[in-house]
């Protein structure tokens, strides 16, 4: 899962979504070193680093570090892993408590971390590569490298790039080129940073199986919820589409969406990116106050008796934004408002018939969020009466329709990992 998702009524009066803080021509924000450094803040802050990969055969690999601070208590830190093989129906899920967690070290900066259970390292001389070594138990061990094939991004450049602020908006306290501004909202903030297209290789040891990973593709996301976890969002959507390494299409479509809680106006914030030919061609945004852009649309909803939610029978994801051109530090949006790149995935999910229990194609798991939250964090979360948050996760082969200037429309085959989270 992408983060912890919870709900209660906050008291903050205002909300400043990142999607409305930047003009369309300023959506692309290059990452600086501080963006992917561990913050490890106190108070009530949940920070995650999540690594996704899909293989040529459609397998899913996910590993994640979750750092959850709860008031004055020592942080709860979890190291999770998921492997799904739709062909063999093999599904491995592991979550282990982390001990002796530290960041940085000799010749390393705060992008690197280690514990008794793992090391996740960025060599400062190769800042586009993560090396992951992990041992969940004697049955589950991983050794992976993630190499960014495109520049990373956040929505908007500068200290407030990527930041959605909750509560009264404060004047900027940092200048361009300085670390992220974490104090812009009186009540807190939420931020996501992305490596949208990575090359992954390595080895998984799952029981007696040794799985060699070659030419997988995926994404890395560093996310922080800088506020009490029970006041941020009432719903989330996430999509990660990757075309295989073979075939030369080099397409990755990434989307993250949340809806703020009612006391913050129930505002929808959607951010995403389009990669074509292993090049970042657009950073997009959508939500309240923005026409078009990036949208996750649930339709043909069916009541799921097990969870009580009206779950989607299908989800249509769309991306649209100004085309980027150039390389590295010279990556810039087109000066022409007609230079638009777009993409669409229409994921049909429902397999059950009317009157039958809700069933869908490619369902990986319905995650009971309360069952996953560490004890101390759960203790401090006040849920509305009867609320039981669930995350639906799916893994499916799909077709993506991609349109870029000068290339026309192309249909690209790939694998989509998606999440829909219901909180209230």
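Q: What amino acid sequence fits the structure above?
A:
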């Amino acid at each position: 899962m992408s983060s912890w998702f919870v709900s209660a009524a906050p008291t903050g009066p205002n909300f400043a979504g990142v999607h409305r803080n930047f003009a369309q021509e300023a959506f692309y924000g290059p990452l600086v070193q501080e963006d992917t450094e561990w913050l490890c803040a106190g108070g009530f802050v949940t920070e995650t680093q999540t690594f996704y990969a899909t293989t040529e055969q459609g397998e899913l690999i996910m590993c994640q570090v979750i750092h959850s601070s709860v008031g004055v208590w020592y942080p709860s830190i979890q190291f999770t892993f998921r492997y799904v093989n739709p062909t063999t129906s093999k599904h491995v899920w592991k979550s282990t408590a982390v001990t002796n967690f530290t960041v940085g070290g000799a010749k390393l900066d705060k992008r690197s971390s280690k514990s008794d259970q793992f090391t996740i390292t960025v060599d400062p001389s190769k800042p586009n590569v993560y090396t992951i070594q992990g041992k969940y138990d004697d049955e589950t061990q991983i050794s992976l490298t993630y190499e960014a094939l495109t520049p990373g991004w956040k929505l908007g450049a500068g200290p407030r790039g990527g930041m959605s602020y909750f509560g009264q908006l404060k004047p900027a306290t940092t200048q361009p080129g300085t670390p992220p501004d974490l104090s812009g909202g009186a009540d807190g903030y939420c931020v996501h940073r992305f490596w949208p297209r990575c090359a992954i290789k390595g080895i998984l040891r799952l029981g007696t199986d040794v799985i060699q990973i070659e030419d997988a593709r995926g994404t890395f996301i560093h996310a922080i919820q800088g506020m009490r976890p029970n006041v941020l969002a009432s719903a989330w959507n996430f999509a990660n589409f990757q075309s295989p390494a073979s075939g030369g299409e080099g397409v990755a479509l990434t989307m993250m969406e949340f809806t703020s809680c009612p006391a913050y106006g129930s505002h929808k914030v959607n951010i995403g990116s389009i990669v074509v030919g292993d090049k970042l061609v657009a950073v997009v945004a959508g939500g309240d106050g923005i026409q078009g852009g990036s949208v996750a649309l649930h339709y043909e909803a069916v009541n799921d008796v097990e969870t009580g939610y009206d779950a989607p029978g299908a989800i249509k994801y769309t991306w649209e934004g100004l085309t980027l051109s150039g390389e590295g530090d010279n990556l810039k949006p087109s000066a022409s408002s007609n230079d638009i790149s777009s993409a669409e995935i229409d994921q049909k999910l429902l397999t059950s018939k009317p009157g039958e229990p809700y069933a869908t194609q490619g369902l990986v798991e319905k995650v009971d969020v309360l069952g996953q939250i560490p004890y101390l964090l759960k203790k401090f979360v006040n849920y509305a009466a009867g609320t039981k948050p669930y995350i639906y996760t799916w893994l499916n082969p799909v077709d993506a329709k991609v349109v870029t200037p000068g290339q026309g429309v192309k249909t690209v085959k790939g694998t989509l990992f998606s999440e829909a989270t219901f909180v209230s």
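Q: And what stands out in the fold?
A: The CA atoms of residues 250 and 277 lie 4 Å apart.
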